[in-house]
Amino acid sequence: MDEAALPDDVDLGFVEESEDYLLTNTYFPSKVGGRPAWLDLEHLPHPDDLKCATCKMPCIFLCQMYAALDEPETFHRTIFVFVCKNPACCKPNRNENFIVFRNQLPRSNKFYSFEAPHEDEPKAETPYLCTLCVVCGCRGPYQCPKCKSTFYCGPAHQRMDWKGGHREKCGAGKVSLLLPEYEIVLETEKPPTPPPNPADEEKQEEQQMAEYKKMVDEGKAGEFKDVPEAELLKFANEEDETFSHFKKTISQEPDQVLRYCRNGSPLWISSTNIPTSDAIPVCSLCNGERVFEFQIMPQILNYLGEDGMALDWGVLAVYTCENSCEVDSQYVREYLHKQDVVK
């Protein structure tokens, strides 16, 4: 499908502040930041599976999307995205600092009640059947040797917690590591507004070209300094077409942080680094094809506090197994494609 021919059934995600209890596993949330609200509460990913491929430090939780499908084995289904906060690992058009997991459960399972809780009736977090890292909320198999009641995913987060005060008095440490926490709420994307009349559209293009020329004159695109004007405008038109479509599409809802459309197409931000279908790796569990499921927008960076200033991306497109194959209590790795506005 052409990137400009987006399907009608796109759900847009927006961040909202929420009651803390609604962001726990009991309520199957879609959310940004905080600790992950794991689905399967026993067979969490091993800490080694959550290490950045570049610096080997633990990744932290970025967001999760509750995306149940109309099949018995996918009655509950959540996609989890983790990121390395080290700015040096955030490289243009590279995805090594991201990790994505899929997990799913049938309606009848050992962790949750058959009937969903009412949101206006606060309930406690459903207990985990394994220990969690006190710092990041991921699986914590390593015990504090002193108090024996605090657990960590590994030495890196144990050191962070000890520097935060745990060494002096067990349980007193408080480490500022997690991203700000918000609920993700979905709304169906509205039909696009009617296109402007040709005169208005031509005027808008002239303004965009004037801005581009100004950028060149100011030395912000020095490699184009000696290119004839006609060629420069031609280049700008070719390069900006996808980006212009991106801006036009999101202009109706500029605060969107996520776009969900399983089996649809991403809204790309650049005409470069768009993956072909054969560039998306197959499912690691069943060898089936992967399909686009949702994308994380650059607007989400505005809600990540100081960490949002250190991280950067254009579009994060998440691809998952087309069959959403049975996971047998596993958290299965899925694929994320990072696209930036640079080549």
Termini separation: 23 Å
What percent of residues are in strands? Answer: 15-25%
Q: Order of strands across the biggest sheet? A: 1-8-2-3-4-5-12-11-10-9
Mean pLDDT: 87
Tally of strands: 12
Instruction: Identify low-pLDDT runs.
Output: 1-6, 220-227
Helix- and strand-based class? Answer: alpha+beta
Gyration radius from CA atoms, angstroms? 22 Å
Shape type: globular
**Secondary-structure element sequence?**
EEEEEEEHEHHEEHEE
Main pleated sheet: 10 strands, antiparallel, barrel
Q: What level of helicity do the residues show?
A: 10-25%
Helix segment tally: 4
Structure description:
The protein is α+β, with helices and mostly antiparallel strands. The chain is 17% helix and 20% strand. It has 4 helices and 12 strands; from the N terminus they run βββββββαβααββαββ. A hairpin with a 7-residue loop joins strand 6 and strand 7. The chain is globular.
Features:
343 residues, ten-stranded antiparallel beta barrel, two-stranded antiparallel sheet, 4 helices, 12 strands, 17% helix, globular, disordered N terminus
Question: How are the secondary structure elements laid out?
Answer:
Elements: E1 11-16, E2 31-32, E3 60-66, E4 76-83, E5 98-105, E6 142-143, E7 151-152, H1 155-166, E8 182-188, H2 198-217, H3 229-250, E9 258-260, E10 290-296, H4 306-310, E11 315-321, E12 332-339
Antiparallel strand pairs: 1-8, 1-9, 2-3, 2-8, 3-4, 4-5, 5-12, 6-7, 9-10, 10-11, 11-12
